[in-house]
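Hello,

I think I submitted the dihydroflavine-adenine dinucleotide job twice by accident. Can you confirm which output corresponds to this input? Input:
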Amino acid sequence: TSVPSLASSDGHGFLQCLREKIPNELVYTQSSSNFIDVLVSSIKNPKFFINATVRPPLCIVTPRDASHVQAAVVCGRRQGVRLRVRSGGHDYEGLSYRSVWPSEVFAVVDLGANLRAVRVDRLKSTAWVDSGATIGELYYAIAKNDSRVAFPAGECPTVGVGGHFSGGGIGMMTRKHGLAVDKIVDATLVNADGDLLDGAGMGEDLFWAIRGGGGGSFGIVLSWKVQLLRVPPTVTVVNIGRTVDQGAVDILTRWQHVAPSLPSDLTIRVIVKQGQQALFQALYLGSCGALVATMDEQFPELGMTSADCQPMTWLQSAATPFLSFASNGTLEEVLLDRTAWTSAFTKAKSDYVRRAIPRAVWKDIFSRWFPMDGSGQIILEPHGGFMDSVSAAATPYPHRNGVLYVVQYIAYWDQQGDCGAAAKSWIDTLYDFMGQNVSKNPRRAYVNFRDLDIGQNDDDGTFESGKVWGERYFVGNYRRLASVKAAVDPTNYFRNEQSIPPLIETM
Ligand code: FDA
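Support: Only one job matched these inputs. Its output is below.
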């Protein structure tokens, strides 16, 4: 597979081409007075808006409809300019608005500015959601007038639908209903030829690939049709912290066995953090009384009582501070504020666990890793339930039957001080240490917790060279993704540092 030389453009022809096809006010060039404001508007990892680390795009296109997206693709291909597509801007490595290749001339297509409608069909229990909407906007639109309607996606309301759905979408209802991609029934996409396709027009393989194969590889997904779900009008939320002195090591060791096999109405995730603490956060799709009975029987070690129950609607649970990291505010403020939760500088990595990690290892983690300078958090999200019933090849997300939980390591720092040296050392050494305790051969990772350390395409990324990271994210599905890529974008127009390379089979 050879990548066509798209690096030589100076961009003038591209801007001219755009001017002929897209209203001027939707294109921000580097000389526009608000160019930087638009560029940083949805950057969630501030380390990528320090001037030295981000080479700005040629321009930012903020399409209002499909024809503007099609025009950007057609002009880009004709004039030798790559496109980075941004929906919510949460990519941990900033791939939606930056390129690590110094010679790459690229523009950003920012769907979050103007393409974020949610159209709900209550009779059919479906909704069309534009990629530029956030999951908070989706949740609000579907459930504001009906507390029995919900959708299973992530926990932070500012996350963009476009990137999130492209990579899977894990949340507090994954054990009951699966990932966001498990409930997508149609989509619209602009492909590398600039054609606008729906799910039927895409064909089975491409429709399969965009539901979990990672963003930025197959085209620009404009909108998604999702199946809405029924939940009880009142759900129960629980938030219990336990320190090491209160038995956190034993409770966590036990949690690994219990959480993936609980009734699927109950999800308990854990945040391990500074202060020798494990925070157990639960969402139960039912009443407090039934939850207490289940916990007494199956997880008495946590010591939960009815005093821990917080009854609320599902929509409130999606906006509740402990689940969303959001600050206090009204439902609307928390779910609809796209600028909320500007994070510290972060670096994330992930693992999957199929065999419970021994108690001694957890003891070590608490005693050795959390007193360290630069220590961050480890977030554990249980699988099991619905996830066990889906085959690894049903969608590109392969981490299904038998997975106990997904691990996310996050390091945080601010601009002052040591520029993150301690935090980066903490996450790197912890990740090395964990290698022997997690799924391996290959060691697994979640594409939505993007991590360029596990490997990246070079300028001429091939199927073989991409295996090093591709098989960690997609295991056996990597090959099918690369075959789909070869069929729909053989010249590799849509590419980034971890996009799927085309697998061109030679006879
Ligand atoms: P962004 O716009 O940065 O895009 C991410 C990638 O997808 C880029 O490669 C981009 O080019 C591509 N892309 C974006 N839109 C596209 C489109 N329309 N068509 C094709 N490609 C597109 N995950 C999870 O599963 N559960 C969770 O609870 C959370 N919570 C969470 C909280 C916070 C604060 C962060 C920073 C991240 C998460 N995530 C998460 C991870 C999140 O799912 C992941 O970062 C998504 O890719 C973010 O999607 P955005 O649209 O916001 O990102």
